[in-house]
Fold this sequence. Notes:
This protein has 152 residues and is an all-alpha fold. The protein has helices at residues 3-6, 11-18, 22-39, 53-66, 70-77, 81-97, 106-111, 138-145.
Amino acid sequence: MFWNQIQDIPDKRFKRLTGVKREVFLQMLDAIKTDQQQKRKHPTRGKPAKLGLEDKLLVMLMYYREYRTQEHIGMTYGISESRVCEIIQDMENILIKDKRFHLPGKKQLLESSSEIEVVLIDVAESPIERPKKNSDGITPARRKSTPSKHKS
């Protein structure tokens, strides 16, 4: 999914596709654009990037939202798997530096008097019931049914 395909869709659908509200996406984009402008010495020089900042942010969100492999994302955007990895790391590092996207630490959560409103449970793995071995069942019957080679 490219930015030009989803920029005009309704807010509810945008949240379902990207995992974040449009306002949060635009704040992330603002943080990335600000960081990129500060890093570039000559903003008008150089080859233009194949993906715009919006699409790079979507690459990162797609990786986290859909649990797709970097190879599949690379095929979608026409870039290599290693480039997808670089984009994800770059976007993460930029957003980590921005204070708007920090989560409260463990100490702050323990010290605060607020109650927890949401509990997340990972239910991806569940135990599989396997048949129990019966010592009186199969093994002795097999021993009795096979003829012994040694006769005394």
